[in-house]
Design brief:
The complex is a heterodimer of chains A (354) and B (262). With 354 residues, chain A is of the alpha+beta class. Chain A contains eight helices and 20 strands. In chain A, 24% of the residues lie in helices and 35% in strands. Chain B folds into two domains: 42 residues, no CATH class; 182 residues, MetI-like (MetI-like fold), CATH 1.10.3720. In chain B, helix 2 crosses helix 3 and helix 4 crosses helix 6. The termini of chain B are far apart. Classes of the chains: A alpha+beta (354), B mainly alpha (262). The interface between A and B is medium-sized, with 25 and 17 residues. Bound molecules: adenosine-5'-diphosphate and magnesium ion (MG). Magnesium ion binds next to helix 1 of chain A.
Amino acid sequence: MTDYLQLSGVGKTFGNFTALDEIDLNIKKGEFVTFLGPSGSGKTTTLMIIAGFEAATRGTITIEGQSLAGLAPQERNIGIVFQNYALFPHKTAIENVYFPLQMRGVKKAEGLRKADEMLALVGLDGFAHRFPKELSGGQQQRVALARALVFEPDLLLLDEPLGALDKNLREQMQIEIKRIQKRLGVTTIFVTHDQSEAMSMSDRVVVFSNGKIEQAAPPLDIYHRPASRFVADFIGESNLLEATITGPGQADCHTLGQVQFLPDPAKTLGIGQAVTLLIRPEHFKLSCAEKPDRMNATIIIDTIVNYGDNALVIGHKDTTQIRMRVPGADVVILKEGDPCHICWTDDAIFVLDR
Amino acid sequence: MDRFLRWTGTAIVLFIAAPLLIVVPMSFSTSASLQFPPPGYWLGYYAQYFTDPVWLWPTANSLIIATATTILTMALVVPATFALVRHKFWGKSAANLMMMMPMAVPHIVMAVGYYSYFGALGLVHSHLGVILAHTCLSVPITFLVLSANLKGFDTTLERAARSLGASQRQTFWHVTLPILRPGLLISALFAFIQSFDETVVAIFISGRGAETLPRRMFDSIRQEADPVIAVISTLLFGAVFLGLIAPHAWRFTRRLIKKDSQ
Ligand SMILES: Nc1ncnc2c1ncn2[C@@H]1O[C@H](COP(=O)(O)OP(=O)(O)O)[C@@H](O)[C@H]1O
Ligand SMILES: [Mg+2]
């Protein structure tokens, strides 16, 4: 499949502050992409440039090869769901959903029928004649979604749409949005600062930091093969340990000693190069005795947080903190303040060279 | 303490309501001048108010002037408020200050100013002169009400409308205007009342040609203390009272209708 939406070299400065720095991104038709990053990293700015509310300082944006330059927001055929939903308070749910059709000159009878169908699709039949203030947060969210989809947009943009909902409703809406997006096949960009949301919903996650794209990859790649220290740190829990390369697949870790790892053919690492080793907490195993086929270390346990099915064990070796996730049943033999053997295998280590 | 507060409260309400308690009975009085308590009751002064040209002309003048003032004020203040609330430009704070000036300058000073200035322009004793002066006096309150409304307006709604295919003009008509309508109505009402109620400037410049109702009332109380003044006061009070309860009554009936249709 070819790229549907293309951003090339898109940048934005406010005065002398660079909010976006040369963004390059290609999105395929029907793809569900999330923008993930800390607050202020440029996610909203990117959306607003795509939507036509902000002008890019440089770069181009195309949909199916057609440049969006010079098109006003209303000419772009892009559906947006805003964080506060932005429902028109003086219109009922169905009037809100009918609005984009009305603007496109669709006859009232046909438009209302379509709006009604869309409300049914988002699970809101029976609420058509309520005003926004008579609807719950989740229901308003659904109206906003229906309104952004009813005119069959080329692109759907959602800017932290679930931020205001409580946890249960949030998870329900995540599933719901995903279902509707699959059903309609609309190309979607979803902005969030919640990593589990990004992980569970998307075909691809784009990690933003300081107006740059750190990495754009499928969720599991982002988790297991982060492109940078920032991504490794931002996504999930991580142990980031300083090390020096001593040979192919070998490094001298300042905390854990000599370690072996599976060399990545795509990465060229020179002997003596300083790197960071990423070991996810669940990749450390407890061991009673030293195992010859595995790498080992002994740490002192500081804190045990038991969640029932699993436990977080925080310990230290020398002055470096080590975090690990162990099955809940294993944790009963551990005591805070005691030393503890841990082991890991060579495929648990991922080398970061930036 | 509780009792003390209750009595003070009652006293204050009585003090504020006292003029009404006196004026309303006096409007039905048979006495030849303002007199309390009235010696007897009839509707003669109501009849006089609604038939005597001495009262009808000033009433018409006041209505014409207040309506024109409202239209002119809104035509000036609505665009100005959008500019001052939504945009940054050179001289913005000076413009803001100018909008509020007429509120700070005493009316008597304004009146003297208009008297000599409009005199030179030949606008004294004309409707147009009073309309222009009243518009100036109505600008600050209208601007205050409207800018408070506009500041509370969520511009994301306009962005949403644009993204849904509405042009700037359509966005204004379908989204901005309907949502701001209550604020616009209230500020227009303030402009109308400001003009209808204004006396000082009217005394200086409305003259015979454009004599307003408050000016006529003022002249009357100085000369004969005609009880028609009490009639007008009662009617005005009635109008304001209706204006206050009308929105509630409207909402109430609409709710009843909605319940019926369900
Ligand atoms: N209109 C603006 N004027 C000046 N700075 C802005 C403006 N809009 C956004 N910014 C800045 O650009 C940066 C990126 O903002 P934004 O895209 O909203 O971040 P995010 O959505 O990732 O939290 C922030 O530092 C923000 O302060
Ligand atoms: Mg944002």
